[in-house]
Amino acid sequence: MLEKIIDLHLHSKYSRACSPALELPNIASSCEEKGIDIASTGDFTHPAWFRHIEDNLEEIGKSGLYKLKEVPTSPSPSSPRLELGTKAGRRGNKTRFIFGTEISCIYKHKEKVRRLHLLIFAPNIETAGKFNNELEKRGVNLKSDGRPIMGLSGYEIVKIASAIDERMMVIPAHAWTPWFAVFGSKSGYDSLEECFEELTPNIFAVETGPSSDPTMNHRLSQLDKITLISNSDAHSLDNLGREANVMVFDDEADINYGEVRRVIKEGDRKKFLYTIEFYPEEGKYHYDGHKDCKVNLSPKETKQEKFICPKCKKVVTVGVLHRVDDLADREDKDIPEEKFIPHKYIVPLREIIGGVFEVGKKSKKVEQEYRRLITKVGNEFYILLRASFEEISRHASDPNLVLAIQNMREGKVKIIPGYDGVYGIVDVLPDKKPGGPKQSRLL
To answer: What is the CATH number of domain 2-281?
Structure first.
């Protein structure tokens, strides 16, 4: 059996607020450092990115999986590129890609304005091209953004994708985010059926998003037959794999688009081992609040304040936990967890190192330690999930790094929940001493 880590949601340099380093050779290189085996191409609706995909990727047989071409194309003069060495360069790079993208649907439905982000997957480049053509026929400006905005409804998107190829997948992205999600408090729905109507059977999976975890989603019995997937929604190379999926395959021939789709559609617990999760409190919309006033509220506190910011008296942003509470029809204790795909929590390695050294995760000191660990010990997921503490200890420059990783694995962390676009803080050394990095906005 072959175990693979899969990240099905990321972006390119053509998406708004995304790093210019997000080019396919760099993404493939970073995936190897992270331990990600299969990644989404991201942004295949964007014409320039589609050409970049054609220039850089080639299909492996008829598998629907793509790899870097052996001969590199000329780098973009306007974009920084990683130094691609022997280990993580094109030659022998093990990263595989599935055609995937995210779109933004903003439309009026049932007397309300809806804002819905959807993940779209195609079995090959030809099908992806057909989907792009159908959007352009309907007047969608695909050049505007890697995640294009359109006036088409979620229902229409499912109808289009199904007509092109029944193997396409449409999966609601970060399903609970307040502003742009199928269950979002600001512009979403109370059920999948309300959104997708008679086409709801075509929706067999939902992306939980960083601000919720599977346990929270399982409080809704309406999702019992829906497979929950987790992905990074990476806007930079560093954020690749902050959430992911772990599947096993019988052999190399078994690793293909069709099998990935089948495992997701059927929720095959023999093949879908677990999802890798943020602690949901770290997500930037877990709690309620108002970032301008630095007001962070639990759902109970929000109700006590009658949904009004106690400082500026404006309406607060209702977060994911509150929204789950509103729609849930059972409590944690009543969830039949044995029926569902398991999950494991991680804290990204750079965040752990930053917490130990009490510096920002983008600091030079963090980067130096990160490079040493992945060079001496192994890729990031190996360090976070599998490496022995003895092995990590031999190469870590601070013994507290071992303790921090042990605390992460055992859930012995202290968390300040995120709210209204401000990331939460996970303290992996809660007994060391107070302090550490401050909460940060939309990074």
So the answer is: 3.20.20.140
